[in-house]
Amino acid sequence: MMMLSFSDPSVRMVARGKAVEIEEAFKNLCTTDIDFKTSIETTTKSISATCARISIWNKTLNDVINTNLHVPVIVGNKII
After folding, report:
1. Sign of the torsion formed by the C-alpha atoms of 51, 52, 53 and 57
2. Backbone torsions φ then ψ of 68, nearest 5 degrees
3. In principle, which of 9, 12, 34, 39 could form an S-S bond with 52, CB 3.0–4.6 Å?
4. How far apart are CA 66 and CA 7, in angstroms?
5. Backbone torsions φ then ψ of 73, nearest 5 degrees
6. SS3 at position 43
7. How is residue 7 annotated by DSSP?
8. Domain locations in the chain?
9. Using CA atoms, how far apart are residues 35 and 73, in angstroms rounded to an integer?
C-alpha cells in the first residue's frame, strides 16, 4: 500500500520533509484503527483486506500531506 501511494511522483514530492508526520500517521493507524489493524494482522490476501489497507492508508496520507490519492472501493468483487 505504501509502495502504491508513493509510486506517484507528485506524492513523493509533497512528502519530502514530512517523514516524521507520515511515520506517526502509520503508527497511529496500526494502534488505533481497528479496520486497518485487522487488514494487516489477519489475512492479507483477501480483496476486502487489501482494499481496506489501501483505502485507509490513502485517506490518511491525503490528510497528512494534503494530497488527493484515489481511495479505492470494492465493486463487484474488484477493487476500483
Report:
1. positive
2. -130, 50
3. 39
4. 16
5. -135, 165
6. coil
7. T
8. 2-79
9. 14
List the grid coordinates of 24: 506517526
- Cβ count within 10 A of residue 55: 21
Per-residue confidence of the chain (80 residues) as pLDDT tens digits?
999 999 999 999 999 999 999 999 999 999 999 999 999 998 778 999 999 999 999 999 999 999 999 999 999 999 99
Vertex 49, ends 54 and 77: CA angle to 5°?
Answer: 95
Dihedral of CA atoms 21, 22, 27, 33 in degrees, nearest 10, equals 110
Instruction: Check if the beta carbon of residue 67 is closer than 8 Å to that of residue 50.
Output: no
